[in-house]
């Protein structure tokens, strides 16, 4: 679908436009500083808590939960899909805030693997609990089938987005099949 002016933009009610709007709105929900201030106050960590801390905490925690022997800055970069230098800054800030700690490697003395501090574990548990309760509340009138199907489709969508990130330097890759000259 295109707008009547023919600029190639999908119609406002096209699925791609509705998804775009929904994703942007959801992103704004989780980025609100108020949520992190309230969580910080509830947990009484004594340190500031930003979205970047939560992202690093979950990257480290989930890697450990998945059985990783050691979690490095490189592993955090991969999980967050950021450059290693960015991950290094995010991890350093999370260490300074007291949510992540470095420990001695049992595999390689040159490495300094990461783990969660007690405060980091509390933040991880609290944020997971908060999000899952929130999602449960939003979907309380959904059937179990609807919840399962939504989880399946959203997971599939997220996996596809991660596997094939957008590249605006290659417009032919961002066109849908219907938009390609044929």
Automatic annotation (TrEMBL):
Keywords: DNA-binding. Residues 16-159 form the HTH marR-type domain. It comes from the Bacteria. Pfam families: MarR_2. The keyword Membrane does not apply. The keyword Acetylation does not apply. One of its GO terms (molecular function) is DNA binding. This is DNA-binding MarR family transcriptional regulator. GO terms for biological process: response to stress.
């Amino acid at each position: 679908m295109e707008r009547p002016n023919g600029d190639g933009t999908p119609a406002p009610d096209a699925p791609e436009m509705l998804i775009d709007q929904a994703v942007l709105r959801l992103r704004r929900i989780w980025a609100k500083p108020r949520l992190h201030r309230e969580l910080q106050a509830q947990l009484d960590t004594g340190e500031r808590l930003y979205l970047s801390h939560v992202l690093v905490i979950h990257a480290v925690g989930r890697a450990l939960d998945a059985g990783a022997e050691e979690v490095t800055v490189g592993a955090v970069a991969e999980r967050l899909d950021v450059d290693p230098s960015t991950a290094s800054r995010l991890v350093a800030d999370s260490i300074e805030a007291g949510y992540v700690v470095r420990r001695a490697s049992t595999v390689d003395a040159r490495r300094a693997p990461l783990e969660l501090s007690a405060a980091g574990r509390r933040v991880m548990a609290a944020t997971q609990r908060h999000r899952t309760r929130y999602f449960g509340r939003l979907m309380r009138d959904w059937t179990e089938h609807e919840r399962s199907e939504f989880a399946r489709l959203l997971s599939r969508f997220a996996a596809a987005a991660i596997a094939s990130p957008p590249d605006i330097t290659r417009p032919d890759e961002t066109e849908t099949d219907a938009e390609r000259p044929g």
